[in-house]
């Protein structure tokens, strides 16, 4: 993850990329069969693409279809390559660049949400402060005893970052984040 | 399929494998037995519809299957055991992936109950071969085995062809289940686009009709698309009057004797082909992929042209070079539309192309493939020229290894038909040619099959001589023996101050005795005036031949586009002095391959 951006394809790319790298969110619909995730992430590592975030789960059980959401970073040229390379994988049904799609729909970006579980331990003032802030962030308490809380918080990645940052001095013990789930606004499907 | 298509019925996994091969029209399988494939070998033993060719190393099986595939247009099939059998198959699998060759590789696996236990001869075959196949499968349920093998053939041979692996645990080979015949209902996720968009084809015709300095640049995709595609390519060239060049992979799609042929392009292509690529105003790329051997320095690649790119693989479009008119589809289908629309709308103004052809004639007059003839030693180029002159009127197939000899073969052996030229282009696999020749000979028992080899490459898979002897496959291994890894040495001269680190083979086997030891025939020749007779002897011998052709040791392969240079910065043979060679590549180009 976050490896230095490599130019794709030929070793003869000695001309510097003039395009600026952008973050894009891709939705990839795949057959849920053994090895399919390895094919997708192997493509990213093998061709030197970045993965900023990756989320996967079966979404249509009767058809055995999984939806993989990948946040990646690259120049428009590299992002186009990533899409086409993903489409070459045999069990891949569809690849949609949600970011491009949202631009087509006249929006800045697709809806992106992430869930985090945040464990905070402490007593006294910091414990009270943690609970108060959690309330302000609309994080809910899903486990607690007299020495700790586990908060569940959902939102944009930046909100989660902020919440985690302010929990740090209040006894932050452990974080688990799901990665980004995303879709486009409006009535149409992907 | 002598018995026609089979029915649904119960059988063992091993029986299914053989039945599925028959149902997919397989006549020959290249393989090597081992513990985890014994049940399949037992089934092979009990029938004679599918012939098994026993190689001496699994890599040999893979390249033989590739040669078989490339010379027939059908899928090549290899069968190997688990563990080392599968890992030895990796090189041919990647080779087939890079060159888009349909290759079906069946591997044995330890029983499902032992997978993951580090069992004897266990390896993670699907994990290891995932990046070097188009797709692969581990079959854990015997009831899915038949459908999986059928799907494997479908995936290997359709769209952009490529290698596939089906990994079959031993208990699945023994288990009984229901066999299903091949069906025409492929999976919904895999739908290669074969028909090009008509609007794009129209745009291409318009662009071509207005071209003043056009060039057609064709590649292996034309060959892969089938003989009809080559036929249509010839028709298109005739109709338009455009000059045509080809990649290493595409040689033979347009005949080298054709009047519009300007020779191969790229790093060791002709001056006229590369200059025409650089100066053209419209480039029509057909089934090629703008590989770095072709383009040279990308930011100086054909700077003033509009580019049309026909390819079945959308990821090839805009990968290395920006395309103005991309057409995604099978080359044959797109050419059909292109030729039809050209006939209907465009008038070929061949007169308008006169100045362009005059310019090309000037470049051609530079005679970039020239070399200094010698009466004392055989020049490698001369050896190929004589080989060509003495074999061109026969039913000849040529394979090569990788290196200088390969480039000389591409430059000086001329191909009139597709599927006659088998060489490892993308991966550059030394040791490809000998087993590939074996595969070609098995497919075409009566043909003259020659591996133009180098002395270093040929020793990488020499053991397959034994296979050739066993199956009476009279392959001719024509070794241009200069005792060097010639291309390595050439690059050391270009990049590393002529310090020839480990590119000289101090101990060379006696190839004549070696041939005899294998039960083949050995010939040695080191005099130019004896060469013709020696080649004739090679042709007439009905056994596998090792021909030790002793050539000038220090000859280098020109013309050349040095790394990091553009098409119009070629190093021509008459300018390639020691000093020019030593300074041909600047610091930036040095890190390139």
From TrEMBL, chain A:
Gene3D superfamilies in UniProt: 3.30.70.260, ACT-like. Chain A, domain 2
Source taxon at top rank: Bacteria
Keyword match Phosphoprotein: no
CDD domains on file: ACT_AHAS
Catalytic reaction(s) noted: 2 pyruvate + H(+) = (2S)-2-acetolactate + CO2
GO cellular component terms listed in the entry, alphabetical order: cytosol
GO biological process: isoleucine biosynthetic process; L-valine biosynthetic process
Keyword Amino-acid biosynthesis set for record: yes
Pathway: Amino-acid biosynthesis; L-valine biosynthesis; L-valine from pyruvate: step 1/4; Amino-acid biosynthesis; L-isoleucine biosynthesis; L-isoleucine from 2-oxobutanoate: step 1/4
Domain ACT: 25-100
Keyword annotations: Amino-acid biosynthesis, Branched-chain amino acid biosynthesis, Transferase
Listed EC numbers: 2.2.1.6
One example GO MF annotation: acetolactate synthase regulator activity
Pfam families, per database record: ACT_AHAS_ss, ALS_ss_C
InterPro entries with a match to the protein in the record: Acetalactate_synth_ssu, Acetolactate_synth/TF_NikR_C, Acetolactate_synth_ssu_C, ACT-like_dom_sf, ACT_dom, AHAS_ACT, AHAS_small-like_ACT
Subunit structure of this chain's protein: Dimer of large and small chains.
Family of the protein in this entry: Belongs to the acetolactate synthase small subunit family.
Main function: Catalyzes the conversion of 2 pyruvate molecules into acetolactate in the first common step of the biosynthetic pathway of the branched-amino acids such as leucine, isoleucine, and valine.
Protein name: Acetolactate synthase small subunit
Organism this protein belongs to: Mesorhizobium waimense
């Amino acid at each position: 993850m976050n490896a230095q951006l490599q130019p794709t394809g030929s070793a003869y790319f000695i001309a510097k990329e003039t395009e600026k790298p952008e973050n894009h969110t891709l939705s990839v619909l795949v057959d849920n069969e053994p090895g399919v995730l390895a094919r997708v992430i192997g493509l990213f590592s093998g061709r030197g693409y970045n993965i900023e975030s990756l989320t996967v789960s079966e979404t249509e059980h009767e058809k055995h279809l999984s939806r993989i959401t990948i946040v990646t970073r690259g120049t428009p040229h590299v992002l186009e390559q990533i899409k086409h390379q993903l489409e070459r994988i045999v069990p891949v049904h569809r690849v949609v660049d949600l970011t491009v799609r949202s631009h087509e729909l006249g929006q800045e970006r697709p809806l992106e949400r992430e869930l985090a579980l945040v464990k905070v331990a402490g007593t006294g003032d910091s414990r009270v402060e943690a609970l108060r802030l959690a309330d302000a962030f609309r994080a809910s308490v899903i486990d607690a005893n007299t020495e700790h809380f586990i908060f569940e918080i959902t939102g944009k990645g930046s909100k989660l970052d902020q919440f985690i940052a302010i929990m740090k001095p209040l006894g932050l013990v452990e974080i688990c984040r799901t990665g980004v789930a995303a879709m486009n606004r409006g009535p149409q499907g992907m | 399929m002598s018995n026609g298509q089979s029915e649904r019925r119960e059988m063992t996994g091993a029986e299914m494998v053989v039945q599925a091969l028959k149902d997919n029209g397989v006549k020959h399988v290249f393989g090597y037995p081992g513990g985890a494939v014994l049940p399949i070998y037992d089934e092979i033993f009990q029938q004679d519809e599918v012939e098994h060719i026993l190689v001496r190393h699994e890599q040999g099986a893979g390249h033989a299957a590739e040669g078989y595939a490339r010379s027939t247009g059908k899928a090549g099939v290899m069968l190997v055991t688990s563990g080392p059998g599968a890992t030895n198959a990796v090189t041919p699998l990647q080779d087939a992936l890079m060159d888009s060759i349909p290759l079906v590789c069946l591997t044995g696996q330890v029983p499902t109950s032992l997978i993951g236990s580090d069992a004897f001869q266990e390896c993670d075959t699907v994990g290891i071969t995932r990046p070097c196949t188009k797709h692969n499968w581990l079959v854990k349920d015997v009831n899915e085995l038949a459908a999986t093998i059928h799907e494997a053939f479908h995936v290997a041979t359709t769209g952009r062809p490529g290698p596939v692996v089906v990994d079959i645990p031993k208990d699945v080979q023994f288990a009984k289940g229901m066999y299903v015949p091949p069906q025409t209902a492929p999976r919904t996720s895999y739908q290669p686009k074969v028909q090009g968009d008509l609007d794009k084809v129209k745009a291409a015709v318009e662009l071509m009709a207005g071209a003043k300095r056009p060039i057609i640049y064709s590649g292996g995709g034309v060959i892969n698309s089938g003989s009809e595609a080559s036929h249509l390519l010839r028709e298109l060239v005739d109709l338009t009057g455009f000059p045509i060049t080809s990649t290493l992979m595409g040689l033979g799609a347009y005949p080298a004797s054709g009047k519009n042929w300007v020779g191969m392009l790229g790093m060791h292509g002709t001056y006229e082909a590369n200059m025409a690529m650089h100066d053209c105003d419209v480039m029509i790329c057909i089934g090629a992929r703008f590989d770095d051997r072709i383009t040279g320095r990308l930011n100086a690649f054909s700077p003033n042209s509009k580019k049309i790119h026909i390819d079945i693989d959308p990821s090839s479009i805009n990968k290395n070079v920006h395309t103005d008119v991309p057409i995604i589809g099978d080359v044959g289908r797109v050419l059909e539309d292109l030729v039809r629309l050209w006939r209907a709308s465009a008038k070929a103004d061949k007169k308008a192309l006169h100045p362009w052809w005059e310019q090309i004639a000037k470049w051609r007059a530079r005679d970039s493939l020239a070399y200094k003839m010698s009466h004392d030693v055989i020049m490698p180029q001369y050896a190929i020229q004589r080989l060509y002159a003495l074999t061109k009127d026969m039913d000849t197939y040529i394979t090569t290894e990788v290196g200088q000899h390969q480039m000389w073969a591409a430059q000086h052996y001329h191909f009139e038909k597709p599927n006659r030229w088998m060489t490892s282009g993308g991966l550059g696999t030394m040791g490809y040619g000998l087993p590939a020749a074996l595969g070609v000979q098995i497919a075409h028992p009566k043909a003259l099959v020659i591996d133009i080899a180098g002395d270093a490459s040929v020793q990488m898979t020499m053991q397959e001589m034994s296979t050739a002897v066993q199956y009476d496959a009279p392959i001719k291994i024509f070794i241009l023996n200069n005792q060097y890894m010639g291309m390595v040495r050439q690059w050391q001269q270009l990049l590393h101050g002529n310090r020839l680190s480990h590119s000289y083979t101090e101990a060379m086997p006696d190839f004549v005795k070696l041939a005899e030891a294998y039960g083949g025939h050995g010939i040695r020749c080191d005099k130019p005036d004896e060469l013709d007779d020696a080649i004739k002897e090679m042709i007439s011998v009905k056994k596998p031949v090792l021909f030790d052709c002793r050539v000038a040791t220090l000859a280098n392969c020109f013309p050349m586009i040095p790394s990091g240079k553009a098409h119009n910065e070629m190093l021509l043979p008459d300018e390639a002095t020691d000093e020019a060679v030593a300074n041909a590549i600047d610091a930036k180009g040095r890190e390139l391959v």
